[in-house]
């Protein structure tokens, strides 16, 4: 599961005031609180009319001073994103890409250039979907288009469009059914363990098969018991067999990794240690 903290949004009154006043301390504290609460990534939105590009760049700079997690840049304006993406120290995410021709044509090149992950929002030229079939069809077209544009499948996060129940009680069941059908249509992936002999794998690091990225580290750490790094990752089923040799990108180095079946240490081993 990837948890994205979304409190740093300039359309919120208190955040907007802090951004206009350049209150960096307040923004840094918002970032720290979200990471402490478990956020793996922080969404930043500078959407104040007329000054979005300026404010988004300032937010990227300030938030990165306070938090080590990657950033999700919340804007539909390719010009704004084009100025902020190069500032990101870790692999960023774009929030979001829809199945609208103008948005695809302007944002896909940016995602590819900056190796950004993307939120694929199930909206098309005709607007948001109203039922299950619309969500599933738009998701399929979006994923097909993005992968054809060389966006790795592991960098695509589908948003099936969540509507408030107050707008219609049918939206809840439709959303859950759509999620199930979207998962069925997607490539089969399995959660595996990885042992990494060198370095410490962290969330978001790429998992490689040869030179092809096949997934991301979901969680990782150093194991004092085993004396090396360990991680989990969702990988294509064909690469999920224990003993499969892969590699992980760690701080600009590519290091060997081997697929294993969790748990990494059996309870009986710990009992006799």
Summarize, please.
The chain has eight helices and twelve strands. The protein is of the alpha/beta class and 273 residues long.
Helix-strand layout with pairing:
Elements: E1 4-9, H1 13-20, H2 24-36, E2 41-45, H3 52-66, E3 71-74, H4 78-84, E4 93-99, H5 101-113, E5 117-124, H6 132-148, E6 156-159, H7 171-185, E7 189-196, E8 206-209, E9 212-223, E10 228-236, E11 245-250, E12 253-260, H8 267-271
Parallel strand pairs: 1-2, 2-3, 3-4, 4-5, 5-6
Antiparallel strand pairs: 7-10, 7-12, 8-9, 8-11, 9-10, 11-12
Task: Describe, in plain words, how this protein is organized in 3D.
Helix content is 34%, strand content 30%. It is of the alpha/beta class and 273 residues long. It has 2 domains: 4-185, Alpha-Beta Barrel (TIM Barrel); 189-271, Elongation Factor Tu (Ef-tu), domain 3, CATH 2.40.30.110. It has a 6-stranded parallel beta sheet, covered by helices on one side. A 6-stranded antiparallel β-barrel has the order 7-10-9-8-11-12. The protein is globular, with a radius of gyration of 20 Å.
């Amino acid at each position: 599961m990837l948890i994205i903290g979304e409190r740093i949004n300039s359309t919120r009154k208190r955040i907007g005031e802090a951004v206009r006043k350049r209150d960096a301390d307040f923004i840094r504290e918002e970032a720290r609180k979200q990471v402490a609460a478990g956020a793996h990534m922080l969404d930043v939105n500078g959407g104040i009319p007329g000054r979005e590009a300026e404010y988004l760049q300032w937010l990227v700079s300030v938030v990165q001073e306070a938090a080590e997690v990657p950033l999700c840049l919340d804007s539909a304006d390719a010009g704004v994103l084009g100025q902020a993406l190069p500032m990101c120290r870790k692999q960023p995410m774009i929030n979001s890409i829809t199945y609208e021709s103008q948005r695809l044509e302007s944002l896909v090149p940016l995602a590819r250039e900056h190796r950004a992950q993307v939120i694929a929002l199930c909206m098309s030229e005709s607007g948001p979907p109203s039922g299950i079939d619309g969500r599933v069809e738009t998701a399929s077209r979006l994923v097909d288009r993005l992968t054809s544009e060389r966006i790795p499948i592991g960098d695509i996060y589908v948003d099936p469009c969540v509507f408030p129940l107050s707008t219609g009680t049918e939206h809840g069941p439709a959303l859950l059914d759509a999620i199930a059908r979207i998962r069925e249509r997607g490539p089969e992936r399995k959660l595996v363990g990885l042992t990494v002999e060198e370095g410490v794998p962290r969330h978001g690091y790429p998992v490689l098969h040869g030179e092809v990225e096949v997934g991301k580290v979901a969680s990782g750490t150093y194991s004092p018991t085993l004396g090396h790094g360990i991680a989990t990752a969702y990988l294509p089923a064909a690469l999920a067999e224990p003993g499969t040799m892969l590699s992980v990108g760690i701080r600009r180095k590519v290091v060997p990794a081997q697929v294993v079946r969790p748990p990494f240490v059996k309870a009986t081993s710990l009992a006799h240690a």
